[in-house]
Amino acid sequence: MKRQTLILGAAGLAALGVGVGVGVGWQRRRDHVTANADAPPWSLQFPRPEGGVLLMSAFRGRPLVLNFWATWCPPCVKEMPALDRFQREFSARGWQVVGLAVDQAGPVLEFLGRQPVSFAVGLAGFAGTDLSRHFGNTAGGLPFTVVFDRRGQVLHRKIGETSFDELAGWAAQA
Asked: What is the value of pTM for the model shown?
């Protein structure tokens, strides 16, 4: 009994040490990442759910709506038609919507099979939460939208569901 208690106590202390170490490392990484929140996304690339690679450099020089979402996020799913409508109606004006799924390929493909969209979708995976923090998502919540002008300057950031009217209003200000 005494030996079992000693082993459990040592395991608990080891877990506490790992937790503290991860927490300190997470804080350092988060501080480093959010320091460059206004940097444009042109150097990034992501796997596409259907295969291939989504190169963000293809959108350089265009105003961009970058939306972080997930299939398991109800407000993300609810705003998809608004993002799709914005892409269809504003692409002739140079605008591009990119959805970065904080998710895995299987669920994203299944979702897009039920609700196809006309904009580019990349797989950011669960590391997408860290990436969204890079662009100013201090809470790490979803959905998260960042709007960039043609030069790559951040115009707007929003945590939470957006709407077509809100997106169109931001586009009018760009």
From this structure: 0.79
